[in-house]
């Protein structure tokens, strides 16, 4: 029994000292300073905190939404590898997301972009230099081109729209002109709208095999600890039923991933609250499930 406790303790300590690693093929690395935080770095490079976590696996403590292992002097990824979306949904093939071209209502994106164009046309550029004025005109032309794309009769590929809007946002931020501040804010809102649309198309057709496998692993680990947990007063059968129910949901034709995420998080919190070293293998496995869900679900469902 002492060995079991020691092994579980070592496993638990290992999960608390996760070292973040930038994703393979990262296009841009940034060296952390003492003044940096996850939120400040994300803001500096025009990405969300969730995107920053996805680009640096291991940085985000699963299910706890905290960032306390950002190491000063270490390099972290701030730009996605070529050909990948910046929010890096690893378990969903891009071809699945890209195929959602005819059934998605993108009126919200059209409205946001119209707002961007309106703000650009309303800017007072009289105090700008000729070069700065030309830069603003260039941004306006790009917004108009993108608006024409989303206003077309054939609904565009969402990942293409997301990439173009993100590029526009990066361009505006790079100009560093105070007069463009309201435009930057509107573009950030547009990026979020597109991300949420992309997230809403993932679920019924996505490749959930990794997620199913991870949950099956939870079930297996619970089964292997039945006698130990029962002796500790843990309702093992109830926990197993919950995991079985979640697996059944995932095997359905249109699983509610948001509900699965909520249920998994609730189960993880419940097990962590028991403070039993014997449960370390199970909570570790559930943390892995949480990570997979965070890479599938849209950013607005992560509670960040």
Topology:
Layout: H1 2-16, E1 28-31, H2 38-44, H3 49-55, E2 75-79, H4 94-98, H5 107-121, H6 130-150, H7 158-175, H8 181-200, H9 209-224, H10 226-231, H11 236-250, H12 257-274, H13 280-296
Antiparallel strand pairs: 1-2
In brief, what are we looking at here?
Helix content is 59%, strand content 3%. With 304 residues, it is an all-alpha fold.
Q: Could you explain how this protein is built, in words?
A:
- It is built from 13 helices and 2 strands.
- The chain is mainly α.
- It has a two-stranded antiparallel sheet.
- α2 (38-44) packs across α3, α6 (130-150) packs antiparallel against α7 (158-175) and α7 runs antiparallel to α8.
- The longest helix has 21 residues, at 130-150.
């Amino acid at each position: 029994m002492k060995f079991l406790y020691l092994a579980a303790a070592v496993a638990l300590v290992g999960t608390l000292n996760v070292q973040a690693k930038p994703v393979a093929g990262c296009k841009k690395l940034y060296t952390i300073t003492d003044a940096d935080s996850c939120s400040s770095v994300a803001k500096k490079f025009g990405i969300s905190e969730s995107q920053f976590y996805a680009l640096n696996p291991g940085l985000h403590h699963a299910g706890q939404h905290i960032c306390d292992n950002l190491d000063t002097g270490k390099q972290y990824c701030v730009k996605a590898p070529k050909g990948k979306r910046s929010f890096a949904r690893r378990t969903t093939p891009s071809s699945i997301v890209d195929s959602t071209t005819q059934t998605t209502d993108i009126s919200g994106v059209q409205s946001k972009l119209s707002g961007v164009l309106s703000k650009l046309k309303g800017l007072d550029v009289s105090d700008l230099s000729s070069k700065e004025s030309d830069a603003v005109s260039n941004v306006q032309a790009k917004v108009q081109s993108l608006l024409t794309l989303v206003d077309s009769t054939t609904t565009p590929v969402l990942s293409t729209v997301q990439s173009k809007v993100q590029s526009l946002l990066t361009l505006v931020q790079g100009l560093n002109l105070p007069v463009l501040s309201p435009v930057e804010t509107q573009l950030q809102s547009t990026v979020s709208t597109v991300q949420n649309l992309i997230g809403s198309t993932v679920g019924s057709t996505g490749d959930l095999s990794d997620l199913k496998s991870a949950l099956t692993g939870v079930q297996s680990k619970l089964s292997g600890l039945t006698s130990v947990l029962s002796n500790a007063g843990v309702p093992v059968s109830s926990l197993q039923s919950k995991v079985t129910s979640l697996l059944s949901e995932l095997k359905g034709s249109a699983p509610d991933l948001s509900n699965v995420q909520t249920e998994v998080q609730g189960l993880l919190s419940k097990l962590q609250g028991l403070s039993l070293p014997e449960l370390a293998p199970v909570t570790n496995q559930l943390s892995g499930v949480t990570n997979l869900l965070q890479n599938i679900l849209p950013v607005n469902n992560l509670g960040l």
